[in-house]
Design a protein that fits this description.
Order of helices and strands: HEEEEEHEEHEHEHEHEEEHEEHEEE
Shape: globular
Number of strands: 18
Strand order of the largest sheet: 4-3-6-1-2-5
CATH topology of the largest domain: Rossmann fold
Radius of gyration: 21 Å
CATH architecture of the largest domain: 3-Layer(aba) Sandwich
CATH superfamily of the largest domain: Nucleotide-binding domain of ferredoxin-NADP reductase (FNR) module
Number of helices: 8
Low-confidence stretches: 1-6, 10-16, 267-282
Distance between the termini: 37 Å
Number of domains: 3
Structural class: alpha/beta
Mean pLDDT: 88
Length: 379
């Protein structure tokens, strides 16, 4: 059995994974596709030994995948749903309305197919002390369970004194992802793991467990099942409205925002599945255009952004290796450090407050507000 204590960031050997590393795609073979629900699968990739260090990761981190379908390049970010240690990467993919890759993965992807996978990244991970009696809690909805599965497994296995409480919202019982794995954790750690299923479209044994996780139901759950004052770290993952509601409730009850970790899986209309190809024509550069100097993989390039053009779109015209995935301000793949100049970001769901203070931006959301801007993807 793998020693899962290595999956927690307890030393410099693990905490370096939280820092920015050079992101790169590598072709990985699909080792297995496991059906989770009628509209969700677990996809397992094999990591060759030669890439083991590149794909080392912490529970809660995510990867970007890239494939070509119907002549188009598609990218999507997915959280890793199992702790590191078995030479494989596991992701959960649930079909989304209009989701190109999620539909492809559920209906066409096959074992032995090859998919380009980006090296892991993300800060949605725990700082739990493996020697302390910590209480970790999570609220997840739908496919938001995927990073929480990795976190719960790592915490329960690697921190013997820790307890983990999960509130998991699904539409119905047959929509619960990783139902067997959750039951297994409960069997293995009956005194340390609690899971409370809330079904929005199916009657359960109590009103508290039936219906949407609206503010009224959150009040009841926090009063009766998991008291925020007893929790050391919170992990919230799911649709933006739910995550924002839960975070607001927790802060109103006195939880320090620094103890609340957030990961969003949908942001409504903000996400763009497919960006224009790097060879797309340059837009009409009217007066008010901006000069951007970008550094990526040690090479510096100069590009021109239109008055309302996002830096990422302009960068892709001349640098096809510019990193990106969700294009909705969620995954953080396009993060760069603003070295000079000023920008406005339409939204930011990926950067932590300390990253913003340090000058980092999301280039998929950044529009120049000064004549000249310099960004560094390597910083």
């Amino acid at each position: 059995m793998v020693d899962m204590t290595t999956a927690l960031p307890t030393s410099p050997a693990q905490t370096h994974l939280l820092r920015r590393r050079r992101l790169a795609f590598h072709p990985l073979e699909v080792a297995a596709i496991n059906r989770l629900t009628a509209d969700a699968v677990e996809v397992v990739f094999t990591v060759p030994e030669s890439l083991a260090d590149e794909f080392d990761y912490l529970p809660g981190q995510h990867i970007a995948v890239r494939a070509h379908h119907d002549g188009k390049e598609i990218r999507r970010s997915y959280s890793l749903c199992a702790p590191m240690g078995d030479g494989e990467l596991h992701i959960g993919v649930k079909v989304e309305p209009g989701g190109i890759f999620s539909t492809f993965a559920n209906s066409e992807l096959k074992v032995s197919d090859t998919v380009d996978v980006m090296t892991p990244q993300g800060s949605f991970t725990t700082r739990v002390d493996v020697n302390a009696a910590s209480h970790i809690a999570a609220v997840a909805a739908g496919s938001g369970i995927t990073p929480v599965m990795a976190l719960a497994t790592a915490v329960l296995t690697g921190a013997p004194g820790a307890t983990f409480t999960l509130v998991y919202s699904s539409r119905s019982a047959d929509q619960v992802m990783f139902v067997d794995e959750l039951a297994d954790l409960k069997d293995r750690f009956p005194d340390r793991f609690s899971v409370h299923h809330v079904l929005s479209r199916e009657q359960r044994f109590s009103p508290m467990h039936t219906g949407r996780l609206n503010p009224e139901r959150l009040d009841v759950l926090f009063d009766r099942l998991v008291k925020p004052a007893t929790v050391d770290e919170w992990f919230l993952c799911g649709p933006v409205d739910l995550v924002q509601d839960v975070r607001a409730h927790l802060t109103a009850r006195g939880t320090d925002p620094i103890d609340i970790h957030v990961e969003l899986f949908t942001t409504g209309a903000l996400r763009r599945d497919v960006l224009p190809a790097p060879s797309a024509p340059v837009p009409d550069l009217k007066p008010g255009s901006h000069t951007v100097t970008m550094t990526l993989t040690g090479r510096t390039s100069t590009l021109t952004c239109g008055p309302d053009e996002r830096i990422l779109d302009a960068a892709l015209r001349i640098r096809s290796d510019t990193p990106f995935s969700c294009t909705g301000g969620v995954c953080g793949t396009c993060r760069a450090k603003l070295k000079s100049g000023t920008v406005d970001m339409e939204v930011n769901y990926a950067l932590e407050p300390d990253e913003i203070e340090a000058g980092y931006i999301l280039t998929c959301q950044a529009v120049c507000t000064s004549e000249a801007v310099e960004v560094d993807y390597d910083a």
